[in-house]
UniProtKB/TrEMBL annotation:
Domain Protein kinase: 1-90
Keywords: ATP-binding, Kinase, Nucleotide-binding, Transferase
Protein family (similarity comment): Belongs to the protein kinase superfamily. Ser/Thr protein kinase family. GCN2 subfamily.
Protein name listed in UniProt: Protein kinase domain-containing protein
Family annotation (Pfam families): Pkinase
Keyword Nucleotide-binding: yes
Species annotation: Branchiostoma floridae
A GO molecular-function descriptor: protein kinase activity
InterPro entries reported in the protein's UniProt record: CC_SR_Kinase, Kinase-like_dom_sf, Prot_kinase_dom, Ser/Thr_kinase_AS
Signal peptide: none
Keyword ATP-binding: yes
Amino acid sequence: LWLVMDFCPLGTMNNFLLRPENISHTVLFMKQVADAVDFLHGHEIVHGDLKPDNVLVSGTVQDPVAKVADFGLSKVTNRGALGDIPTNSM
């Protein structure tokens, strides 16, 4: 078994956004992460541990791309069971 991932030289979203010059990318990342979650839920997958440290950043500082990672707690479900799995938190 081989695992292949993109190299994400900009680190995690958490570390990337801690740098003041990168804070302007926050809205872009939220859109990209929301699109990723929409894709996952559309394929009946719940991530289960979505947080800034589980979002990697590739691309360049000027044009970063957020990539959801760490699917260790993810669940594949069906539409009927999705109601039993929390998909948000406060």
